[in-house]
Amino acid sequence: MAVKGTPALLRTLNQGALMQHLRQHGPLSRAQLARDTGLSKPTVSQALADLEDAGLVRPVGPAAPSRGRTAMLYEPDPTAGYVLGIDIGRAWIRMAVADLAGVIMARSDTPNRARTAGAVVRTTAREARAVVKRAGIPWKRVVHTVVGSPGVFDPVTGRLWHAPNLPDWSKPGLADELRDALTPSTAIENDANLAAVGERDFGGGREGRSFVYVELGTGLGAGVVIDGELWRGSRGAAGEVGYIPWPGTDGDAPSERGRLEEATSAGGVVALAKQLGMKGARTAKDVFDAARRDDPKALEAVAIESDRIALLLATISALIDPEFIVLGGGIGGSADLLRPRLEQRLRELTPLETRIEESELGQDAIVFGAIATALETARELVFAARLAARAS
């Protein structure tokens, strides 16, 4: 791991190498770091001293007793900065603040009653400051924020496209409004992509290298992980499965774009239940709760919904060939009801193996993915800023 270069560059690279190794394997002693990285013990000692002075690492106590001198163990200082992960959905705005070790300090779930994009931004900013205050952290200590949102963020135009469930969400300047209302370093990511990252790092995705996360809720989306990395596509629209053509009313011609999302989302479940004559169903949860009580019309609605989802999953399986598909979102949370019919229909539709898993993170998947994504950037920002401040 040792490198050659100018003294200043060499110091920075060595410090970065030690930080990375401590994040992955710490806490460690100087001697362990020297053995693992190939750096000399004097180099490791000096780099650790510099990193400790910069507030980037801290001693955590002595190693287990052994013969000779007891070694001190070091770890990255998780309080060197904080990150904010936000999930903006049609029904809820969820968020959490975490330290640089990824430990959640505080979180909140707030109903989204806003009817304009500006009101959504104001609600998000207000709740963000409230949750950071509740964590006992000064706002200026939040290094980086990641916002999960429906749709696709276009960095060229700075606009969010394909997010019909949020009011005026594609209007010009919205991304700048979010950044101005939150932290100077703020990134906007597709919510299903973040959910896939959350499952990869904290949920069932840890067990596989290639999988697809399908978000079934107010809208429909998917996040694709291939060989452990999120796959965004050439324009960031990979996983916009709501635009897969869906059969029209005549049974064979495709209908208008976006109809698959309408058919499989929460609104589609409610509309289907009403068409079947079910009374009092205002939400998809009402339908699934009634199905658990063996209501015949609700059970029929769930069966048809399973058939629709099966067609989507069979398409994904043929295109991606994932190890498994994770069902998430409000509807995905009822996988126990969907699974029997869903698996039966998949066997009829495709000879390809299509393993179905329920999300381990549930409604928190997007927030956890936002935290995981924010940590990658925040650690780099803190490292560069602390060392620059120490050198000045």
Give a summary of the structure in a few sentences.
The chain has helices at 7-25, 30-37, 41-53, 117-134, 174-181, 191-202, 259-264, 266-275, 284-292, 296-320, 329-332, 335-349, 365-391, and strands at residues 28-29, 57-62, 72-76, 82-88, 92-99, 104-111, 142-149, 152-154, 159-161, 186-190, 211-216, 220-226, 229-231, 324-328, 356-358. It is an alpha/beta fold and 392 residues long. The strands form 4 sheets. It has a 5-stranded mixed β-sheet with strand order 6-5-4-7-10, sandwiched between helices. A 5-stranded mixed β-sheet has the order 13-12-11-14-15, with helices on both faces. The chain has a 3-stranded antiparallel β-sheet with strand order 1-3-2.
Description:
Helices cover 44% and strands 20% of the residues. The protein is elongated and about 75 Å long. It has 392 residues and is α/β, with parallel strands linked by helices. α8 crosses α9. The strands form 4 sheets. A 5-stranded mixed beta sheet has the order 6-5-4-7-10, with helices on both faces.
